[in-house]
Amino acid sequence: MLPIIDRYILREASKSFLAILTVLMLIVVSQSYISILEDAASGIISNEVLMRLLGLEVLQVLGPVAPPTFFFSILYTLGRMYRDSEMTALAAGGVGTFRVFRSFLLMALPVTALVAWLTISLLPWVNQNKEETIQSQQDESAELGTAVAGRFNEFSQGDLLFYVESISDDKSRMRNIFIQNRKHGKLGLVTAAEGYQYVDKETGGLYLVLNDGYRYEGSPGNSAYTVGDYEKYAIRIGEGKKAVKALPPKALPSGYLMRSEKISELSEFQYRLIFPTAIIVFTILCVPLSKSLPREGIYGSLMLAILFYFIFLNLQAVSGNWMVAGITPVWLGRWWVHPFMLTLGGLVILYKSHRFTAAMASRFRGKRP
Length: 369
Hints:
Blueprint: H1 4-41, H2 50-83, H3 86-92, H4 97-140, E1 152-155, E2 160-167, E3 174-183, E4 186-199, E5 206-218, E6 226-238, H5 254-259, H6 263-289, H7 299-325, H8 337-367
Helix pairs in contact: 1-2, 1-4, 2-4, 2-6, 2-7, 4-6, 6-7, 6-8, 7-8
């Protein structure tokens, strides 16, 4: 059973963490949703995969968003406690800075484990599914994506000529179809009430699947024609692309990246480790950074936290570019970002400590008779 002080601090920090996480996720996901809607409106993706991509986007950003959320929540909680003189009361009762740090460390360890799972295990799975979903969508619209309703369209190097009266907005369904198909010297005419495109996952072949129509087949100049009706009929309209597109580093498993000798893949692996490590780094920094005078307010600490995390985000992006470009050695990689942030935080903490000490001494002298 945790002591009452630990339970109180963890409860306050957890409430702040959930509230800030909700706000940040709404902001990030809203921006992603707008981008996905633009792709859907332009026909790049269909409405069927829109919600799936949005769900994958939520899982993708959850890991990177967690460290700043944790950082802001601790600073907000401690800033409020300093403002309401709760930290002064705790100090008077013998609860020092290290005791408070221990409470936040109890929260930081499970959050670190969760972020590590999100970025190391879940993130590549999400990126792989996004790549496959988008690639499958592009394959399915590759041939008929340029088809125009109300005129004759030619595919398969002239062997397939078809006319369609109307096409759905996502180009997945067609109505009132007339097709002329030439195969092995025979001319075939096919009509259908509706149709859609289908991609064979094994062969990569592209088929036009027709429903409820008639089929006529014969040779030009010969009166012998075969006529038949059907409920479903498939016509091959392309060979498709059997070659499997190589996955980008962001979609590769972390175990593979760890053993890789390619700089770009090692950079991606270290990128995934940056965020769980950031939880520990920010936990070390946030307790002394949050120190403020009673009734001073909490917004100064939050602005400082935003500035710190803005620097961190830029450094982690720069570190990846420098590593791939060979500016930093492989052994250093992207690991230098966290020591740099600790050094920068230490300088700010030292400055705030002198300022805090001077302010308290001034108050004490002002109260003397």
